[in-house]
Amino acid sequence: MTATETANLTIIEAADLVRKRKLSPIELTEACLERIAALDGRLRAFITVTREDALAGAQQAAAAIARGNYKGPLHGIPIALKDLFDTSGVRTTAGSKVLGERVPAADATVTERLKAAGAIMLGKLNMHEFAFGATGVNHHYGGTHNPWATDRMSGGSSSGSGAALAAGMALGALGTDTGGSIRIPAGLCGLVGLKPTYGRVSRHGVVPLCWSLDHVGPLARTAADAAIILQAIAGHDPKDPASANEPVPEFSAGIGQGVRGLALGVPREFFFDRLDTEVRAAMEGALKALEGLGARLVPVSLPHSRHVPAVSFGIQAPEAFAYHEKTLRTRAHEYGPDVRTRLESGRYFPAALYLKAQRARRLLMEDYRKAFGTVEVIVTPTTPIAAPPVGVSTVTAEGRTIDVRGALTRFARAFNATGLPAATVPCGFTADGLPIGLQVAGRPFDEAMVLRVAHAYEQVAGWTQRRPPGFD
Amino acid sequence: MQDDARETVRRTSALAGLSLTEERLAALAATLPFVQVIVSALAAVDYRDADPASPLPARPRAAR
Protein backbone atom coordinates (compact mmCIF):
# COMPACT_ATOMS: atom_id res chain seq x y z
CA MET A 1 0.00 0.00 0.00
CA THR A 2 1.18 3.55 -0.73
CA ALA A 3 1.19 6.21 2.01
CA THR A 4 -1.87 7.75 0.35
CA GLU A 5 -3.79 4.46 0.40
CA THR A 6 -2.73 3.75 3.99
CA ALA A 7 -3.71 7.18 5.30
CA ASN A 8 -7.05 7.01 3.49
CA LEU A 9 -8.15 3.77 5.16
CA THR A 10 -11.18 3.87 7.41
CA ILE A 11 -10.58 3.15 11.09
CA ILE A 12 -12.40 -0.18 10.70
CA GLU A 13 -10.13 -1.21 7.80
CA ALA A 14 -6.93 -0.03 9.48
CA ALA A 15 -7.86 -1.58 12.85
CA ASP A 16 -8.49 -4.93 11.19
CA LEU A 17 -5.04 -4.85 9.57
CA VAL A 18 -3.36 -3.65 12.79
CA ARG A 19 -5.05 -6.36 14.87
CA LYS A 20 -3.93 -9.03 12.39
CA ARG A 21 -0.42 -7.47 12.41
CA LYS A 22 -0.60 -6.88 8.65
CA LEU A 23 -0.14 -3.14 9.18
CA SER A 24 2.07 -1.58 11.82
CA PRO A 25 0.93 1.53 13.74
CA ILE A 26 4.36 2.94 12.85
CA GLU A 27 3.70 2.59 9.11
CA LEU A 28 0.21 4.04 9.56
CA THR A 29 1.47 7.01 11.59
CA GLU A 30 4.34 7.68 9.19
CA ALA A 31 1.87 7.68 6.28
CA CYS A 32 -0.24 10.35 7.99
CA LEU A 33 2.82 12.44 8.92
CA GLU A 34 4.06 12.20 5.33
CA ARG A 35 0.68 13.47 4.08
CA ILE A 36 0.68 16.31 6.62
CA ALA A 37 4.19 17.39 5.55
CA ALA A 38 3.22 17.28 1.87
CA LEU A 39 -0.25 18.82 1.98
CA ASP A 40 -0.74 21.03 5.00
CA GLY A 41 0.92 24.04 3.43
CA ARG A 42 -2.06 24.19 1.07
CA LEU A 43 -4.79 23.39 3.56
CA ARG A 44 -3.62 24.79 6.94
CA ALA A 45 -5.45 22.05 8.82
CA PHE A 46 -2.92 21.83 11.66
CA ILE A 47 -1.73 24.40 14.19
CA THR A 48 0.72 22.02 15.88
CA VAL A 49 2.02 18.69 14.57
CA THR A 50 3.37 16.46 17.35
CA ARG A 51 5.57 14.36 15.09
CA GLU A 52 7.97 12.98 17.70
CA ASP A 53 5.22 12.17 20.21
CA ALA A 54 3.19 10.48 17.47
CA LEU A 55 6.10 8.29 16.36
CA ALA A 56 6.95 7.40 19.97
CA GLY A 57 3.29 6.51 20.59
CA ALA A 58 3.20 4.40 17.43
CA GLN A 59 6.31 2.49 18.52
CA GLN A 60 4.76 1.82 21.93
CA ALA A 61 1.52 0.66 20.32
CA ALA A 62 3.40 -1.61 17.91
CA ALA A 63 5.37 -3.14 20.78
CA ALA A 64 2.25 -3.66 22.92
CA ILE A 65 0.38 -5.31 20.04
CA ALA A 66 3.38 -7.53 19.29
CA ARG A 67 3.26 -8.65 22.94
CA GLY A 68 -0.42 -9.56 22.49
CA ASN A 69 -1.77 -6.55 24.40
CA TYR A 70 -4.22 -5.33 21.76
CA LYS A 71 -6.57 -2.77 23.35
CA GLY A 72 -9.25 -2.49 20.67
CA PRO A 73 -10.11 -0.72 17.42
CA LEU A 74 -8.37 2.58 18.23
CA HIS A 75 -5.09 0.95 19.25
CA GLY A 76 -2.38 2.33 16.98
CA ILE A 77 -4.81 4.52 15.00
CA PRO A 78 -3.61 8.11 14.27
CA ILE A 79 -6.13 10.72 15.40
CA ALA A 80 -5.94 14.52 15.56
CA LEU A 81 -7.65 16.92 17.96
CA LYS A 82 -9.16 20.34 17.44
CA ASP A 83 -6.89 22.79 19.24
CA LEU A 84 -9.57 23.39 21.86
CA PHE A 85 -8.84 20.14 23.74
CA ASP A 86 -6.23 20.28 26.47
CA THR A 87 -3.20 18.11 25.80
CA SER A 88 -0.65 17.65 28.56
CA GLY A 89 2.66 19.26 27.56
CA VAL A 90 1.38 20.29 24.11
CA ARG A 91 0.23 23.87 23.54
CA THR A 92 -3.49 24.37 23.21
CA THR A 93 -4.29 27.70 21.56
CA ALA A 94 -8.07 27.56 20.93
CA GLY A 95 -7.06 29.02 17.57
CA SER A 96 -6.19 32.31 19.27
CA LYS A 97 -3.16 34.43 19.93
CA VAL A 98 -4.63 35.06 23.39
CA LEU A 99 -3.76 31.46 24.35
CA GLY A 100 -0.90 31.17 21.85
CA GLU A 101 1.70 30.04 24.39
CA ARG A 102 -0.59 28.08 26.70
CA VAL A 103 0.68 24.57 27.52
CA PRO A 104 -1.77 22.65 29.70
CA ALA A 105 -0.42 20.52 32.53
CA ALA A 106 -3.13 17.89 32.10
CA ASP A 107 -5.16 16.24 29.37
CA ALA A 108 -8.85 16.92 28.75
CA THR A 109 -10.97 13.93 29.75
CA VAL A 110 -11.52 13.02 26.09
CA THR A 111 -7.79 13.26 25.32
CA GLU A 112 -7.12 10.96 28.25
CA ARG A 113 -9.78 8.49 27.08
CA LEU A 114 -8.47 8.38 23.49
CA LYS A 115 -4.94 7.76 24.78
CA ALA A 116 -6.25 5.00 27.07
CA ALA A 117 -7.88 3.39 24.02
CA GLY A 118 -4.44 3.37 22.35
CA ALA A 119 -5.00 6.15 19.78
CA ILE A 120 -1.93 7.96 18.41
CA MET A 121 -2.06 11.75 18.72
CA LEU A 122 -0.88 13.46 15.52
CA GLY A 123 -1.34 17.02 16.70
CA LYS A 124 -3.68 19.95 17.16
CA LEU A 125 -6.04 21.08 14.44
CA ASN A 126 -6.81 24.55 13.16
CA MET A 127 -10.16 26.09 13.99
CA HIS A 128 -12.16 29.29 13.98
CA GLU A 129 -10.78 31.35 16.87
CA PHE A 130 -12.34 30.23 20.19
CA ALA A 131 -14.78 28.15 18.09
CA PHE A 132 -16.81 31.32 17.45
CA GLY A 133 -17.45 31.12 13.71
CA ALA A 134 -18.58 28.70 11.01
CA THR A 135 -16.30 29.59 8.11
CA GLY A 136 -12.85 28.36 9.19
CA VAL A 137 -11.29 31.82 8.85
CA ASN A 138 -8.45 32.30 11.32
CA HIS A 139 -6.55 35.58 11.60
CA HIS A 140 -3.66 34.09 13.58
CA TYR A 141 -2.89 30.70 12.05
CA GLY A 142 -4.34 31.19 8.55
CA GLY A 143 -7.70 30.07 7.22
CA THR A 144 -8.32 26.39 6.52
CA HIS A 145 -9.07 25.36 2.93
CA ASN A 146 -11.42 22.66 1.71
CA PRO A 147 -9.63 19.67 0.09
CA TRP A 148 -12.53 19.22 -2.37
CA ALA A 149 -11.75 22.70 -3.82
CA THR A 150 -9.05 24.72 -2.13
CA ASP A 151 -10.72 28.02 -3.06
CA ARG A 152 -13.71 26.96 -0.92
CA MET A 153 -14.35 27.16 2.82
CA SER A 154 -13.78 24.06 4.89
CA GLY A 155 -16.53 25.17 7.24
CA GLY A 156 -16.02 25.59 10.96
CA SER A 157 -15.43 25.97 13.65
CA SER A 158 -13.73 22.54 13.59
CA SER A 159 -12.21 23.50 10.24
CA GLY A 160 -8.92 21.62 10.57
CA SER A 161 -10.75 18.49 11.73
CA GLY A 162 -12.75 18.46 8.48
CA ALA A 163 -9.86 19.32 6.16
CA ALA A 164 -7.29 16.95 7.74
CA LEU A 165 -9.61 13.99 7.60
CA ALA A 166 -10.89 14.66 4.08
CA ALA A 167 -7.31 15.04 2.82
CA GLY A 168 -6.14 11.78 4.38
CA MET A 169 -3.87 13.33 7.02
CA ALA A 170 -5.53 11.46 9.94
CA LEU A 171 -7.97 8.58 10.29
CA GLY A 172 -10.27 10.34 12.74
CA ALA A 173 -10.65 13.64 14.53
CA LEU A 174 -12.39 15.29 17.44
CA GLY A 175 -14.34 18.51 17.16
CA THR A 176 -16.69 20.61 19.22
CA ASP A 177 -20.15 21.77 18.24
CA THR A 178 -21.98 24.80 19.69
CA GLY A 179 -23.99 25.77 16.61
CA GLY A 180 -22.98 23.11 14.10
CA SER A 181 -19.19 23.23 14.41
CA ILE A 182 -18.73 19.46 13.93
CA ARG A 183 -21.51 18.92 11.39
CA ILE A 184 -20.76 21.95 9.19
CA PRO A 185 -17.10 21.12 8.38
CA ALA A 186 -17.95 17.42 8.17
CA GLY A 187 -20.79 18.22 5.75
CA LEU A 188 -18.75 20.61 3.60
CA CYS A 189 -15.78 18.21 3.52
CA GLY A 190 -17.75 15.04 2.67
CA LEU A 191 -17.41 13.32 6.05
CA VAL A 192 -19.49 11.89 8.85
CA GLY A 193 -19.68 14.17 11.90
CA LEU A 194 -21.61 13.37 15.06
CA LYS A 195 -22.74 15.78 17.74
CA PRO A 196 -23.82 13.49 20.57
CA THR A 197 -26.53 14.26 23.12
CA TYR A 198 -25.75 17.11 25.55
CA GLY A 199 -23.97 15.51 28.50
CA ARG A 200 -22.96 12.31 26.66
CA VAL A 201 -19.29 13.34 26.24
CA SER A 202 -17.27 15.24 28.83
CA ARG A 203 -16.16 18.82 28.18
CA HIS A 204 -13.67 18.87 31.05
CA GLY A 205 -10.43 20.37 29.75
CA VAL A 206 -12.10 21.81 26.65
CA VAL A 207 -11.96 25.61 26.25
CA PRO A 208 -15.63 26.63 26.41
CA LEU A 209 -17.54 28.81 23.99
CA CYS A 210 -21.04 28.59 25.47
CA TRP A 211 -21.65 26.28 28.41
CA SER A 212 -25.26 25.38 27.70
CA LEU A 213 -24.76 24.66 23.98
CA ASP A 214 -21.23 23.15 23.78
CA HIS A 215 -20.84 19.51 22.73
CA VAL A 216 -17.83 17.28 21.92
CA GLY A 217 -17.89 14.63 19.21
CA PRO A 218 -16.11 12.77 16.42
CA LEU A 219 -15.50 13.47 12.74
CA ALA A 220 -14.86 10.31 10.75
CA ARG A 221 -14.97 8.88 7.23
CA THR A 222 -17.92 6.60 8.02
CA ALA A 223 -20.67 6.18 10.59
CA ALA A 224 -19.02 2.98 11.82
CA ASP A 225 -15.77 4.87 12.44
CA ALA A 226 -17.68 7.60 14.29
CA ALA A 227 -19.23 4.89 16.50
CA ILE A 228 -15.74 3.63 17.42
CA ILE A 229 -14.49 7.07 18.42
CA LEU A 230 -17.69 7.85 20.32
CA GLN A 231 -17.35 4.57 22.22
CA ALA A 232 -13.94 5.65 23.49
CA ILE A 233 -14.94 9.13 24.63
CA ALA A 234 -18.55 8.72 25.86
CA GLY A 235 -19.56 8.28 29.47
CA HIS A 236 -20.05 10.10 32.73
CA ASP A 237 -17.33 12.41 34.00
CA PRO A 238 -17.79 14.02 37.42
CA LYS A 239 -15.35 16.75 36.34
CA ASP A 240 -17.94 18.15 33.88
CA PRO A 241 -20.99 19.46 35.78
CA ALA A 242 -23.18 18.89 32.70
CA SER A 243 -22.03 15.31 32.18
CA ALA A 244 -24.92 12.84 32.20
CA ASN A 245 -24.75 9.65 34.24
CA GLU A 246 -26.43 7.61 31.50
CA PRO A 247 -25.50 4.05 30.52
CA VAL A 248 -23.25 3.89 27.45
CA PRO A 249 -24.44 1.28 24.94
CA GLU A 250 -22.28 -0.55 22.42
CA PHE A 251 -22.66 1.96 19.56
CA SER A 252 -21.43 -0.44 16.86
CA ALA A 253 -23.61 -3.36 17.97
CA GLY A 254 -26.80 -2.57 16.05
CA ILE A 255 -25.32 -0.32 13.40
CA GLY A 256 -25.94 -2.83 10.61
CA GLN A 257 -29.61 -3.48 11.36
CA GLY A 258 -30.85 -1.32 8.52
CA VAL A 259 -33.84 1.02 8.41
CA ARG A 260 -36.63 -1.33 7.32
CA GLY A 261 -39.79 -0.40 9.24
CA LEU A 262 -38.29 2.70 10.86
CA ALA A 263 -40.24 5.97 10.78
CA LEU A 264 -38.09 8.88 9.57
CA GLY A 265 -39.49 12.33 10.32
CA VAL A 266 -39.30 14.94 7.57
CA PRO A 267 -39.97 18.44 8.96
CA ARG A 268 -42.80 20.38 7.34
CA GLU A 269 -41.34 23.75 8.34
CA PHE A 270 -38.06 25.61 8.11
CA PHE A 271 -35.60 22.86 7.15
CA PHE A 272 -36.46 22.81 3.46
CA ASP A 273 -36.72 26.58 2.96
CA ARG A 274 -34.15 28.52 0.92
CA LEU A 275 -32.17 25.47 -0.20
CA ASP A 276 -29.65 25.56 -3.01
CA THR A 277 -31.16 23.66 -5.96
CA GLU A 278 -28.46 20.99 -5.93
CA VAL A 279 -28.83 20.48 -2.17
CA ARG A 280 -32.59 20.06 -2.62
CA ALA A 281 -32.06 17.48 -5.38
CA ALA A 282 -29.53 15.56 -3.25
CA MET A 283 -31.94 15.56 -0.30
CA GLU A 284 -34.78 14.27 -2.44
CA GLY A 285 -32.48 11.50 -3.69
CA ALA A 286 -31.42 10.59 -0.15
CA LEU A 287 -35.01 10.42 1.09
CA LYS A 288 -35.94 8.23 -1.86
CA ALA A 289 -32.99 5.94 -1.14
CA LEU A 290 -33.97 5.60 2.52
CA GLU A 291 -37.55 4.84 1.47
CA GLY A 292 -36.16 2.26 -0.92
CA LEU A 293 -34.44 0.59 2.05
CA GLY A 294 -37.81 0.13 3.72
CA ALA A 295 -38.05 3.24 5.92
CA ARG A 296 -41.30 5.20 6.19
CA LEU A 297 -41.11 8.94 5.61
CA VAL A 298 -43.40 10.72 8.05
CA PRO A 299 -44.03 14.49 7.89
CA VAL A 300 -43.47 16.06 11.33
CA SER A 301 -44.36 19.48 12.62
CA LEU A 302 -41.74 21.57 14.45
CA PRO A 303 -43.62 24.88 14.61
CA HIS A 304 -41.09 26.79 16.73
CA SER A 305 -38.21 26.12 14.35
CA ARG A 306 -38.33 29.65 12.98
CA HIS A 307 -37.18 30.87 16.42
CA VAL A 308 -34.01 28.74 16.36
CA PRO A 309 -31.60 31.48 15.19
CA ALA A 310 -32.87 33.95 17.80
CA VAL A 311 -32.73 31.32 20.55
CA SER A 312 -29.19 30.30 19.60
CA PHE A 313 -27.71 33.77 19.25
CA GLY A 314 -29.67 35.00 22.29
CA ILE A 315 -27.95 32.35 24.41
CA GLN A 316 -24.57 32.05 22.73
CA ALA A 317 -23.51 35.70 22.63
CA PRO A 318 -24.04 36.48 26.35
CA GLU A 319 -22.57 33.16 27.53
CA ALA A 320 -19.50 33.58 25.33
CA PHE A 321 -19.07 37.16 26.49
CA ALA A 322 -19.35 36.08 30.14
CA TYR A 323 -16.44 33.67 29.64
CA HIS A 324 -14.24 36.20 27.79
CA GLU A 325 -15.16 39.42 29.63
CA LYS A 326 -12.06 39.56 31.81
CA THR A 327 -9.65 38.86 28.95
CA LEU A 328 -11.43 41.32 26.67
CA ARG A 329 -10.77 44.07 29.21
CA THR A 330 -7.02 43.59 29.08
CA ARG A 331 -6.09 41.82 25.83
CA ALA A 332 -8.88 42.66 23.39
CA HIS A 333 -6.39 43.68 20.69
CA GLU A 334 -5.05 40.11 20.59
CA TYR A 335 -8.36 38.68 19.33
CA GLY A 336 -9.07 38.51 15.60
CA PRO A 337 -11.35 41.40 14.54
CA ASP A 338 -14.36 39.20 13.65
CA VAL A 339 -14.33 37.21 16.88
CA ARG A 340 -13.55 40.26 19.03
CA THR A 341 -16.60 42.16 17.77
CA ARG A 342 -18.80 39.06 17.99
CA LEU A 343 -17.74 38.47 21.60
CA GLU A 344 -18.00 42.11 22.63
CA SER A 345 -21.50 42.33 21.16
CA GLY A 346 -22.56 39.93 23.95
CA ARG A 347 -22.27 42.86 26.38
CA TYR A 348 -25.30 44.51 24.73
CA PHE A 349 -27.71 41.58 25.13
CA PRO A 350 -30.05 42.40 28.02
CA ALA A 351 -30.51 39.70 30.68
CA ALA A 352 -34.22 39.54 29.86
CA LEU A 353 -33.33 38.64 26.29
CA TYR A 354 -31.16 35.75 27.44
CA LEU A 355 -33.99 34.48 29.65
CA LYS A 356 -36.51 34.75 26.84
CA ALA A 357 -34.17 32.75 24.63
CA GLN A 358 -33.96 30.07 27.32
CA ARG A 359 -37.77 29.97 27.59
CA ALA A 360 -38.19 29.74 23.82
CA ARG A 361 -35.67 26.93 23.91
CA ARG A 362 -38.11 24.97 26.06
CA LEU A 363 -40.77 25.38 23.37
CA LEU A 364 -38.36 23.95 20.81
CA MET A 365 -37.65 20.98 23.06
CA GLU A 366 -41.36 20.35 23.39
CA ASP A 367 -41.75 20.35 19.58
CA TYR A 368 -39.10 17.67 19.30
CA ARG A 369 -40.48 15.65 22.22
CA LYS A 370 -43.82 15.45 20.43
CA ALA A 371 -42.26 14.64 17.06
CA PHE A 372 -40.14 11.86 18.52
CA GLY A 373 -43.30 10.28 19.85
CA THR A 374 -44.00 9.09 16.32
CA VAL A 375 -40.61 8.80 14.58
CA GLU A 376 -37.24 7.26 15.37
CA VAL A 377 -35.12 9.97 13.70
CA ILE A 378 -35.61 13.29 11.91
CA VAL A 379 -33.82 13.91 8.62
CA THR A 380 -32.90 17.32 7.19
CA PRO A 381 -30.17 18.84 5.04
CA THR A 382 -27.02 19.60 7.08
CA THR A 383 -26.54 22.96 5.40
CA PRO A 384 -28.69 24.72 2.76
CA ILE A 385 -25.62 25.32 0.58
CA ALA A 386 -22.41 23.51 -0.35
CA ALA A 387 -19.00 24.97 0.58
CA PRO A 388 -18.98 28.70 -0.30
CA PRO A 389 -15.92 30.38 -1.86
CA VAL A 390 -13.35 31.58 0.68
CA GLY A 391 -13.88 35.24 1.57
CA VAL A 392 -17.52 35.71 0.57
CA SER A 393 -20.06 36.86 3.16
CA THR A 394 -23.24 36.24 1.15
CA VAL A 395 -24.46 33.56 -1.27
CA THR A 396 -27.59 33.08 -3.33
CA ALA A 397 -30.09 30.26 -2.79
CA GLU A 398 -33.42 30.03 -4.60
CA GLY A 399 -32.96 33.54 -5.92
CA ARG A 400 -32.41 35.11 -2.49
CA THR A 401 -29.18 36.56 -1.15
CA ILE A 402 -28.40 35.02 2.22
CA ASP A 403 -25.68 35.57 4.82
CA VAL A 404 -23.09 32.76 4.72
CA ARG A 405 -22.67 32.41 8.48
CA GLY A 406 -26.42 32.32 9.05
CA ALA A 407 -26.90 29.85 6.21
CA LEU A 408 -24.18 27.45 7.35
CA THR A 409 -25.53 27.21 10.91
CA ARG A 410 -29.27 27.42 10.14
CA PHE A 411 -30.19 23.71 10.21
CA ALA A 412 -27.59 22.61 12.76
CA ARG A 413 -28.42 24.96 15.61
CA ALA A 414 -31.76 23.39 16.56
CA PHE A 415 -29.92 20.32 17.85
CA ASN A 416 -27.59 22.36 20.04
CA ALA A 417 -30.54 24.19 21.56
CA THR A 418 -32.41 20.93 22.20
CA GLY A 419 -29.28 18.93 23.04
CA LEU A 420 -30.44 16.08 20.78
CA PRO A 421 -27.88 13.88 18.98
CA ALA A 422 -27.37 14.73 15.30
CA ALA A 423 -25.00 13.48 12.62
CA THR A 424 -24.17 14.46 9.08
CA VAL A 425 -23.47 11.88 6.38
CA PRO A 426 -22.54 12.65 2.74
CA CYS A 427 -25.59 12.50 0.44
CA GLY A 428 -24.20 13.67 -2.88
CA PHE A 429 -22.06 16.19 -4.72
CA THR A 430 -22.74 19.36 -6.66
CA ALA A 431 -21.84 19.58 -10.34
CA ASP A 432 -18.64 21.34 -9.18
CA GLY A 433 -17.74 18.31 -7.06
CA LEU A 434 -18.57 19.80 -3.65
CA PRO A 435 -20.01 17.47 -0.98
CA ILE A 436 -23.58 17.78 0.31
CA GLY A 437 -24.64 16.52 3.75
CA LEU A 438 -27.73 14.77 5.11
CA GLN A 439 -28.43 15.45 8.79
CA VAL A 440 -29.91 12.66 10.93
CA ALA A 441 -31.11 13.59 14.44
CA GLY A 442 -32.37 11.29 17.15
CA ARG A 443 -33.96 10.98 20.56
CA PRO A 444 -31.94 11.87 23.67
CA PHE A 445 -29.04 9.44 24.16
CA ASP A 446 -30.03 7.44 21.08
CA GLU A 447 -26.83 8.03 19.11
CA ALA A 448 -26.96 4.33 18.21
CA MET A 449 -30.12 4.89 16.12
CA VAL A 450 -28.64 8.00 14.45
CA LEU A 451 -25.54 6.01 13.48
CA ARG A 452 -27.65 3.05 12.33
CA VAL A 453 -29.63 5.23 9.89
CA ALA A 454 -26.47 7.02 8.70
CA HIS A 455 -24.72 3.68 8.17
CA ALA A 456 -27.66 2.18 6.27
CA TYR A 457 -27.74 5.18 3.94
CA GLU A 458 -23.96 5.10 3.45
CA GLN A 459 -24.07 1.46 2.36
CA VAL A 460 -26.54 2.11 -0.43
CA ALA A 461 -25.25 5.54 -1.47
CA GLY A 462 -21.52 4.86 -1.55
CA TRP A 463 -20.53 8.55 -1.29
CA THR A 464 -18.16 7.94 1.64
CA GLN A 465 -15.80 6.02 -0.64
CA ARG A 466 -14.98 9.13 -2.68
CA ARG A 467 -11.80 11.08 -1.92
CA PRO A 468 -10.99 14.66 -2.98
CA PRO A 469 -9.31 14.79 -6.42
CA GLY A 470 -5.68 15.71 -6.05
CA PHE A 471 -5.62 14.37 -2.50
CA ASP A 472 -6.60 10.79 -3.29
CA MET B 1 -30.40 55.44 14.19
CA GLN B 2 -26.63 55.29 13.79
CA ASP B 3 -26.20 57.99 16.47
CA ASP B 4 -28.67 56.20 18.79
CA ALA B 5 -26.79 52.93 18.43
CA ARG B 6 -23.48 54.61 19.21
CA GLU B 7 -25.02 56.33 22.20
CA THR B 8 -26.51 53.03 23.44
CA VAL B 9 -23.13 51.32 23.14
CA ARG B 10 -21.36 54.26 24.80
CA ARG B 11 -23.76 54.32 27.77
CA THR B 12 -23.87 50.54 28.24
CA SER B 13 -20.09 50.37 28.08
CA ALA B 14 -19.80 53.22 30.58
CA LEU B 15 -21.99 51.21 32.99
CA ALA B 16 -19.41 48.43 32.70
CA GLY B 17 -16.66 50.96 33.43
CA LEU B 18 -15.37 51.01 29.86
CA SER B 19 -14.45 53.96 27.72
CA LEU B 20 -14.37 52.98 24.04
CA THR B 21 -12.39 54.46 21.18
CA GLU B 22 -14.33 55.87 18.24
CA GLU B 23 -13.31 52.85 16.18
CA ARG B 24 -14.72 50.36 18.74
CA LEU B 25 -17.87 52.45 19.19
CA ALA B 26 -18.49 52.26 15.46
CA ALA B 27 -17.77 48.52 15.25
CA LEU B 28 -20.05 47.67 18.16
CA ALA B 29 -22.80 50.07 17.13
CA ALA B 30 -22.91 48.16 13.85
CA THR B 31 -23.80 44.97 15.75
CA LEU B 32 -26.81 46.50 17.51
CA PRO B 33 -29.26 46.05 14.61
CA PHE B 34 -28.50 42.30 14.86
CA VAL B 35 -29.27 42.36 18.60
CA GLN B 36 -32.46 44.26 17.74
CA VAL B 37 -33.48 41.51 15.30
CA ILE B 38 -33.12 38.96 18.09
CA VAL B 39 -35.07 41.19 20.50
CA SER B 40 -37.90 41.45 17.96
CA ALA B 41 -37.85 37.73 17.15
CA LEU B 42 -38.02 36.71 20.80
CA ALA B 43 -40.70 39.31 21.51
CA ALA B 44 -42.86 37.57 18.90
CA VAL B 45 -42.72 34.16 20.62
CA ASP B 46 -45.85 32.92 22.36
CA TYR B 47 -44.41 31.73 25.67
CA ARG B 48 -47.60 30.32 27.16
CA ASP B 49 -46.43 26.72 26.90
CA ALA B 50 -42.85 27.45 27.89
CA ASP B 51 -43.25 27.19 31.61
CA PRO B 52 -46.18 25.16 32.94
CA ALA B 53 -45.41 26.32 36.47
CA SER B 54 -45.58 29.99 35.57
CA PRO B 55 -47.36 32.05 38.25
CA LEU B 56 -48.57 34.45 35.56
CA PRO B 57 -52.14 33.84 34.38
CA ALA B 58 -52.35 32.39 30.89
CA ARG B 59 -53.71 34.70 28.25
CA PRO B 60 -56.76 33.47 26.39
CA ARG B 61 -55.71 31.74 23.19
CA ALA B 62 -56.57 33.53 19.98
CA ALA B 63 -58.81 31.69 17.56
CA ARG B 64 -56.75 30.06 14.83
Topology at a glance:
The complex is a heterodimer of chains A (about 475) and B (about 60).
Chain A: H1 3-7, H2 11-19, H3 25-43, E1 46-49, H4 51-66, E2 78-82, H5 109-116, E3 120-125, E4 145-146, E5 149-153, H6 159-166, E6 172-177, H7 183-188, E7 192-195, E8 215-220, H8 223-233, E9 263-267, H9 277-292, E10 296-300, H10 308-331, H11 337-345, H12 351-371, E11 377-381, E12 394-397, E13 400-403, H13 404-409, H14 414-417, E14 422-429, E15 435-442, H15 447-461
Parallel strand pairs in A: 2-3, 2-6, 9-10, 9-11
Antiparallel strand pairs in A: 1-3, 4-5, 6-8, 7-8, 7-14, 11-15, 12-13, 14-15
Helix pairs in contact in A: 3-4, 8-15, 10-11, 10-12
Chain B: H1 2-15, H2 22-29, H3 32-43
Q: Beta-strand percentage of chain A? A: 15-25%
The helix content of chain B, as a percent range, equals 40-55%
Strand order of the largest sheet of chain A: 1-3-2-6-8-7-14-15-11-9-10
Into which percent range does the helicity of residues of chain A fall?
25-40%
Helical segment count of chain B = 3
Count the helices of chain A. How many? 15
Shape of chain B: elongated
> Which structural class do the helices and strands of chain B define?
mainly alpha
End-to-end separation of chain A in angstroms reads: 13 Å
- Largest interface chains and counts: A-B, 26 and 25 residues
Which outline of chain A best applies?
Answer: globular
Low-pLDDT residue spans of chain A: none
Kindly provide the radius of gyration of chain B, computed on alpha-carbon positions and rounded to a whole number of angstroms: 18 Å
CATH class of chain A equals Alpha Beta
Instruction: State the total count of DSSP E strands of chain A.
Output: 15
Helix and strand sequence of chain B: HHH
Mean pLDDT of chain B, to the nearest integer, reads: 81
As a whole number of angstroms, the C-alpha radius of gyration of chain A is 20 Å
Question: How large is the share of residues in beta strands of chain B?
Answer: under 5%
